[in-house]
Structure formats: C-alpha cells, structure tokens
Amino acid sequence: MQTLRYLAAAFLLMVFLASVGADFLSPAPYERQFRDHPNEPPSRRFPLGTDELGRDRLSRLLHGSRVSLLLAPAAALLAVFLAALVGLSAGFLGGWFERAAMACTDLFVSLPWLFLLLTVRALLPLNVAPWTSVSITFLLLGLLGWASSARVIRAGAAAVRGSDFALQARAAGCRTARLMMVHLLPNLRPAIAAQFWISIPVFIWSEANLGMLGLGVTEPLPSWGNLLLELANYRAVFAAPWLLAPAVLLVLVSSGFHFIFSKEDPCR
Amino acid sequence: MEPLLSLRISAGYPGRPAVLQDVALDLEAGGTLGLVGQSGSGKSTLALAILRLLHLKGGRTEGRIQFAGRDLTECGEREMRRLRGREIGLVLQSASSSLNPALRIGTQLREAWRAHADSAWEKPFELLQSVGLHADDAFLRRLPGEISVGQAQRVLIAMAVLHRPSLLIADEPTSALDLITQAEVLRLLAALNRERNMATLFISHDLLSIASYCRRVAILHEGRIVECGETGRIFSQPAHPYTRRLVEALPRIPLAASSLNLATLAARLEEDLAQRAAADVVHPQAE
Amino acid sequence: MPVTRLPLLALSAYLAWGQWGGELRFCLRSDPKTFDPLAVADDSSETVRYLTGGVLVRVNRKTQQLEPELAESWKVAEGGRKIVFKLRERVLYSEGTPFSAEDVAFTVRRMMDPALHSPTGDSFRSGSGEVRAETLGPHRVSILFPSPIAGLERLFDQVAILSAVSPKAVLGPFVVAEHKAGSHLLLRRNPNYWKKDASGRRLPYLDSVRLDIQQNRDLEQIRFRRGEIHLIDSLDPETFDSLAAEAPASAIDAGPSLDTEMMWFNQVRNAPLPEYKKAWFRSKAFRRAVSESINRDDIARLVYRGHARPAVGPFSPSNRFWFHAGLRPHGFDPAGARRKLEQEGFRLDGAVLRDREGHPVEFSLVTNSGNKTRARIASLLQQDLAKVGIRLNIVPLDFPSLIERINRTFHYEACLLGLVNVDLDPNAQMNVWLSSAANHQWNPNQPSPATPWEAEIDRWMRAQASTLDPKKRKAAFDRVQEIVWEEAPFLYLANRNFLAAISPALRNTAPAAMRPQTFWNVERISFANQISGRR
Ligand SMILES: Nc1ncnc2c1ncn2[C@@H]1O[C@H](COP(=O)(O)OP(=O)(O)OP(=O)(O)O)[C@@H](O)[C@H]1O
Ligand SMILES: [Mg+2]
What we know:
The structure holds three protein chains of three kinds.
Chain A: H1 2-20, H2 22-25, H3 57-93, H4 95-110, H5 113-123, H6 130-144, H7 147-161, H8 164-171, H9 176-212, H10 224-228, H11 234-239, H12 245-261
Chain B: E1 5-12, E2 20-27, E3 32-37, H1 43-50, E4 60-67, E5 70-71, H2 77-83, E6 88-91, H3 105-114, H4 125-130, H5 137-140, H6 149-160, E7 167-171, H7 179-196, E8 199-204, H8 207-213, E9 216-221, E10 224-230, H9 231-236, H10 241-248, H11 252-256, H12 262-279
Parallel strand pairs in B: 3-8, 3-9, 6-7, 7-8
Antiparallel strand pairs in B: 1-2, 1-4, 4-5, 9-10
Chain C: H1 2-18, E1 23-28, H2 43-52, E2 57-59, E3 66-68, E4 71-77, E5 82-87, H3 101-112, H4 119-122, E6 132-137, E7 140-144, H5 152-155, E8 174-180, E9 184-189, E10 208-213, H6 217-225, E11 231-232, H7 237-246, E12 251-256, E13 260-265, H8 275-282, H9 284-293, H10 296-303, E14 308-310, H11 334-343, E15 347-349, E16 352-354, E17 362-368, H12 372-387, E18 391-397, H13 399-409, E19 414-419, H14 430-433, H15 452-465, H16 470-487, E20 490-502, E21 506-507, E22 526-527, H17 530-534
Bound molecules: adenosine-5'-triphosphate and magnesium ion.
Magnesium ion is lined by residues 43-44, 93, 171 of chain B.
C-alpha cells in the first residue's frame, strides 16, 4: 500500500511538472497547425499523432493538463469550501436554519444554472483571452457546483449533531462555533476530502460539456475537456487507440489522487 | 439551608407518553443522591433535562430546576453554557461513544478546559492519576478507539470534574466496568465528593453501587419518584412494592447476613472488592 | 412437360416480381408537427408532404428543370400576375374521388386564406389585394395574383393539391397509414397514384415507407449498418469516410450541396463597437485582405476531408442555372493581402498588424457553439489570420444569444455561419440582398443604402424580380454576384458536398443537391432483390 502511494505520488508529481513545463517539453506549440500532416498516427515527430488540423496531440495534451490540473482542483476547492460551510452549519445547527439552507441547496441543484452560465458568457466582453475565459468558467463551476456536496456533508454533520460525543462536548460547556471547528470538522474531513476528489473529475467533465455550449475553453487553448470530446466518436477510437491518451491520463491522475489521499484515515 | 439542586419537572419526547411526570428531587451541597430505576424509566432523560440539553435529543422539559439560587429553566443558552462543565459536570451513560472518535484524548480534555478557563492549558496529569489513568503524553495522544471502555469512562469523569463543579451528574458511570474497576471508580467518586465537596447525582440501576456510595436514594418508577430517603432506610424498609421487588432481586448471599444493614453490607462489599483487586496480578490498566 | 416447366415459371415470376414491393425505411429527426400540407414549416412535415402530396409541377431535383405533374401544361400571363394550368385527366385521389380544377382552386384559396397563415402561401404573397383562383372548365384553372411574381410557376412545386371534398385524400405516391407519436410513421402506397412506369405499370414500386423517429444520429448510423434502415440524408465527413472504408457501395458523395459556409463583418453604423474597428470592417480593402488571407483549400481538405470545395458566392455550382460560372473563389494570397492592408495604412509591427492609429488589429468571431465543423473552420481562420498579424478571438455562443447579437444588439464584430439554401431561385434571397431587408446581415434594415454598391445590388435585385425573362434575370443576378465578390460583404468559405448513405439494396436512387436529396424520386425507387427488401 505504501509503495503504491509513493508510486502514485511520483506519477502525479511527474504529470504536474510536465504540465507546468509544457512549454519546454512540448515538441511543438499547441496551436501550431501542421496542415500537411492531419490525423497522423504516432510517429517520432508526433509521439501521439496529430489531430484533424495537424496539431501535435502530445503538445495539446501537456498544455491541456496544465489548464485542467490547475483549474479543476481550484474550482473543486472553492466548491467544497462552500459546500462545507453550508453543509456543516445546516447539519449541525439544525432547526429552521437547516431547513432554509437545504431548501436553498435543493433550489440550487434544480436551478437551470446552464442558463446562468450562458448568460454570463453572453455578458463577457467579446475579446477575452482564452486563459481568462477558461478561468472564469472554472470559477463559475466552483461557485455553482457546491450544492450536491453540501447535501452529503450536511448528512454527515446531522449525524454528528445527534451523537453522544457532541452531547458530551456540549455538556462540558463547549461553544457552538468551537464545537463545529474542533469536534465536527475532523469527523467530516474524510467526507469533505472525498467530495473534493470527486469534484475534480466532475469539473473536468463539466468543462468539456460546457465546451459544447461554447462556455468552456475556447480555441486554440486545449483542455482535457475538449481533448476528451474527440472520444465522442467511438469508431475513431477503435481505429486510433492513441486518442485515448487524455482519458487514460485523467483516469490515472484521478486514481493517483485517490491512492494518496484516501489512506486509511487515522480519524476513522 | 437551601438545597444545591431542587427540581420539579416533567419531561418527555413529543408524540410519546410523558417519560417523567412531576418528578421532584432535592440534593444538598456536597450530598450524594442515588437515582435508581428500571431501564427506560427516564434516568438519562432527567440528567439531560437538568443541563437543559434534552432538546438536542428531541425532548421537552417543563417545570423548574433550582440550582444554586437560580432557576435553570429561565436561564438563557449563554448562561447555561457557562454553567455546563464548570458548575455542573455530566458523565454520559455510554463511555465508548461519548468521546469524539476523531480527536485525541488530550485534545478533548483541552477543549473541555478551554470552554471555561482563561488560564493557559496545562496537562492535567494529576487529575488523570487520581482517576487511575496513565498520566503521560503518550496517553493523551491516543484516540478514543485506542483506549478501553473503562479508561474512556474515567477520562469522561476526569473531564467532568476538570473545573471542580459543585454538582456532578454521573449517568451509570460504572455500567461498563468489571467489578474491580467499578469499585475503583466508586472510590474515586467518593473521594472527589469528600475532598471537593462535590454533590453527586448518581444514576444507576445497580443497587449495590448505590448502597456503597450514596447517602440518599430516589426510586424512579413509571415516570414518578415512588420513594426517596436515606439509603439504609429505603433498602431495609422498602415501602413501595417496586422498591421491595428491587431489593428482593438482589443476590441472596450477602443479604442473608442478619440485620440487613445495607450500609455496613456495602462497606464490607467494598473492602472485599479492594482485596480482590490487590490480589489480581494483572492491573486492568497495565498495557 | 408441366413438371419441368414449373420451376422455370416460378423463377420468371420471381424476377418480374423482384422490382415490386418492399418497405423503404429511414429516420426522421422528430415527429412531423402537422399533416396539413399547407401548414408545413418543419423538416419532418415537409418529408411527409413530399411523400404523400401531389403537385401540379415538380422541379426535377437532378436537372433542376420544371416538369409537369398533375398539370399537363401551364402558361404565365399578364406579366407574371396570372398562371393558367391545364390539368391531367382521369386522375383519382387515394380515396377514389376524381381530381379536377375545383380541387386546385380550393387549394389555392385555402392557401391564401389570411386566417390560415400558411407558410407555403407566404411565398405567393406579392402585394396587397386578393388572389383569385377560377376554374375555366373541369380541367383548366386560372390563378390571378395582385402583382407579378418572378419564378411563379416554380413555387407550385411546394403546393400539394388538396381535395375539395375529402380532407384526407391525397394525390402523391403514398398515404399515411399509421402514426405512433415518438416512434414511427407508416406510409402505404397509394393504389390510385396516377404515374406509371415505362411498361405501363402503376407506380410506386414500393409497398410502403416507414419513417422512424430517431433523434440520435449515432443510433441512426448503427441501424443503417445493420441494414434496418436504407437511407441517411446527410452525413458528416468523418462518418462518411468511415462508412466509405467499410461499405464503399453505400457511401455516396453526391457533389456540392446548396449550402455555403461564410463569415461577415459587422458594418452596422451604430453598433456598440469602437469606431476604429467599424472603420476596418467598412473598408473593402480590409475585407478583401482578410478574405485573401484565408486558405479555403485547407478548409475543404482538413475540415471536410476533401468533401467540399472553396465557395465563391451565394450559390454553389450545384445550382445549375443561377451559379455564376465566371467567378473564382478569392485566391489564397497572404502577400497580396498584406499589400492591400499596407495601402490602407495598416502596417506590421513585429508579428502584430496595426492600423493607421496604432491599434493592434484584433477582432472576435462569433459562431454557434457545439458545431464541430465551424469550430475547426474558426481554428484554421485563426492561424491563417495570425500569419498576416491579425489576432482572431473565437467566441462560440449558444444559438439564441448569437441571433440576439447579430439581429438585435449588433454587439459582435464578425460572425461565422452557414447558409442553407432550399430554394434555387434568387428571389428567395430578396430579404438578404436588399439593403432595407431584415436579413441583410452585415447591415440590416437600412433606411437608404449605406454605400453605392449596396444601392447597386438593390437595383439589380429589383430588376431581376421585375422581369420574367430568365436570361435578363440571370444577367441581373450575375451582376449582384459580381458586386458581392468584389466588395466581399460576405466572405464565402466553402460549399460542402452532400454526403449520404444509401443502401445498395435500393435501385433507381439518384441523390441530388436539392431537398429531398435522397428520395426525391421515391415513386421509382425499388429494391433490387425484393426478398432482402422485405426481410
Ligand atoms: N431521543 C429520544 N426520542 C424519543 N424517545 C426517547 C429518546 N430517548 C429516550 N427515549 C425514551 O424515553 C424513555 C426514557 O429513556 P432514558 O434513556 O431516559 O431511560 P433510562 O432510564 O436512562 O434507561 P437505561 O437504564 O436503559 O439507560 C425510554 O422509554 C426511551 O425509549
Ligand atoms: Mg440511561
């Protein structure tokens, strides 16, 4: 188990360094179109082949990793922070506050937030740099994506509220705020961490889907999202398995995170 | 002199028949009162009601709870918080679940300290020693899952008396303990009671423990106090049929001993237990 | 010997029978919204109308010539205000009632009934006043319009003739037999269909047509590969190529479609854009320079995998009559583009093109999101323009926001969209070319033409609409195409080919550019081997 963890950590570090150093490692600029070499299979020159416009897939994957590996966790962090705030206070305080907060959460889940995103995109200025627009997209994902996590966290917090040790802490005169910070948080840390790790791939996928609506990363910037979209054509994948590289990387990175952080938590 | 605690309450959970019906109790400062009753008779409910924590379990309380000159039912939550742990200590019934599984023992003690003290936190090694626990850093670093139930029960007691409250409510503090440890805990409570003049409401359905520790005893049956008075008198001349049945249910052998002076009986029992403990090779707390 | 002759007889019967019967199956994207041929506004309803409706005249989808159907002949008179049809005799409706001039008059009156809001009728509304349809005998009918309509007779291609007596009776090759909403539609052959084949047998060859409601294009392809359906109307190049690799016989590239991809700059005078940008967009040299920086061959080759060709104007070469054969697409000439820009005062500063006042040349291109083809075209444009120092920002928008911007707020700089032509006649594009029109995309609803060349386009468009002489009309519209080529208000990029999947089991299919491309001659389509057709 321990070796696996080290392996995972080494792998993640490698991917992280590779994406940070994408500018140096990429065989070619990610937007450069080698128009005489479209749809090429892997070769020495193009280790992962080229896309339909002749862009080097490896370079796009590296740069795409940078976008997704930096922004998706940031969005997940924001979402989980909001979820913890709402879920903890709702679950622990109970009463009318809980009812109000959960009604709010349900509303948020059922809200047609796609329209909200569309509206926001429509309100953005026309000439924005791709990096700005993708950052805004992830920021919005973070701001909007907390509700389902909040439900899970609330359930955990409600269980703690009724527990004997919370009662005992109260009987010892513990303040509510302190109770939440010191007694509640450590108990829900695994749940919160799980929500965080779950959110990352979800956000990566959301970004991919938003790309279909024109809200995600705009050309020519790559992201795992828009690279994954190419897999939509399953026939092409059979003929060209190297198209799977972004998906494989996503799976490996997600499970890498899982191995490192879902250790048998001492708190458990 | 006015008693430290004097209450007259009814309590229950919505949608069910009342658990406590007009229960009245008095406990003078430094006194020890045993509360006996069948399982499910409402003893724990009463303990929580006194600390005004019953609502956390979904329960309701009516009546008045006079404590050290105030009516607790009229205190605000802020005042109640200041009272809990500092003037009234509580040991909950189930030791194993009353400690936060995610927090180290030291942290939980520190939190209990922090709740009322302005002074810097010092590790209460002396106190832990006095409840018969290993008073070292290694112990404080343990998680509740890493200590025995008996140890947990004593940690809880230490936590409850950390601020030297004038009243300790101990809800079956010995239920999970073997006879020897039980006796130790009882001795500890007795010592605390003596040395700190700490009044104790001792909840139990174990008559022998009550007999050995409490000066007075109240019998709770079907939501009412059916009998209340000197321990010796109640056990020697039970008036209420329920009490009579209780006493009769006690093991025959010690009760067969002549004049039925339960107080002496209990004292003898305690001695006996102590001897047995000394003879035991393995100390229960030894690692 | 009867014993030996029997199998032979059976075989010959089988061969003769081979041409007949069977069920043609293909998919509709959605349920038809109406079965009333005059209320048709959506694709599915149009398909049903085509398969069931009988018309007076039909534009042959292959030759694009007008051919007689229920009308044996016709005559346009009074400068295009009047048309007289001589009708075919002894034609019966599907229910057995005879077809007569009365039915045509009834149909026209109903179509022009203002209360009905018939979209088909809209194309006949030429001016205020009543449309009069009169029978001149049992098989002659005359229709009089308040003012002339150019290309009047061709419009009747869309008018399925109703029965004056029986609302459900039809004159087309098939009759709707069954409709299960969300699932399928079953059409059976019309036993009274008037058309006969060369050997004198009554058409259609097919017994029935089954239209499955299928939104998902992937499933449609899978079903085609399994042989469950026989036609797919338009394939994207990627799918086409993979089908062509697997089953070359069923992948049909029918040559250029009528559709055009194009981009244009916002030339609206009070658009919420910086003045200097508006100045670029109004500059012909700028527009032409951008156009010449674009490598259209690469678009056809990379985006459409070769199944397209550089576009030159509003009509693709598949519009045989109206296409201007004398024009060539703007050539790919970055050096020439740079020269043009320099003459306009633009200069290259490192890798960045700047205008006279020093503003870096950067503009955004809005397009509808979720369209892979357009995203790829935009990427190619981005790199092509970068080569001349222009920075292009691609802004994919959802369709409603896009329409809002290009039609109402005019808050956009350039737009990339496709033009889907269903009509061959330039008259259908009056609302695009007239400077006062709402669909004059680069600068709509002008009170008076903003530029001399737009005024000239207005003149030529009006000229072609006001004459019935095809030669004169063609000359006028050629002028329009030349001006548009010269001024480049629209930068035409590519005409994609019409790519279809047609089961090799079918005979007599003749895919064409015009809708319905694959089954326009449905009454003559049959199964080569009836057994396989019936399955
Ligand atoms: N949270 C609750 N909601 C509803 N009813 C409850 C709740 N807690 C306890 N009760 C009921 O109230 C009654 C008294 O319970 P309580 O826990 O006070 O009994 P007890 O005397 O402490 O019993 P034991 O000796 O088993 O600890 C029981 O009948 C129990 O079923
Ligand atoms: Mg209890």
